[in-house]
Design goal:
- The protein is an all-alpha fold.
- The protein is built from five helices and no strands.
- Helix 2 crosses helix 3 and helix 4 runs antiparallel to helix 5.
- The radius of gyration is 23 Å and the shape is flat.
- The two termini are 20 Å apart.
- 8% of the residues are buried.
Length: 130
């Protein structure tokens, strides 16, 4: 978010214009996205006017981002499901005064970190897909 500071400072001094904002990369500009979407819609298995073709055009436009977003959501779900199991094992090892509890504590920490990163990456790629 290094770009926010100068934009906010300019907006504080005066009303922002289009020229005050940074240009988007070519692949994220509306005109390029519209052309790509129209091409995908026309080539969607010869079904150019059906809702199915429209859905395929939307999916094919952001296929990479949708797949990565799905994988990140899967990792997030797995890490969230692992937390109660690891916590139960940690409590059991503490009650038995076993040293292996430290491994469960570290695993719980790693699961939390994985959960945070995968959640943020899921949202990043989901919004990038549109």
């Amino acid at each position: 978010f290094h770009w926010v500071g100068p934009v906010v400072a300019t907006g504080y001094r005066r009303q922002l214009d289009e020229d005050d904002l940074f240009p988007l990369p070519n692949k994220e500009q509306a005109d390029d996205l519209r052309r790509h979407f129209a091409l995908q819609r026309k080539t969607a298995s010869g079904l150019a006017q059906t809702p199915r073709a429209l859905l395929w055009a939307v999916i094919s436009g952001g296929r990479r981002e949708i797949i990565i977003s799905g994988v990140m959501m899967l990792l997030y779900s797995i890490s969230q499901l692992a937390n109660p199991i690891l916590l139960r094992q940690l409590v059991n090892s503490i009650e038995k005064q076993e040293f292996e509890g430290i491994y469960y504590a570290v695993a719980l920490l790693c699961s939390g970190i994985l959960s945070a990163f995968s959640s943020q990456l899921h949202f990043h790629f989901a919004f990038a897909a549109g």
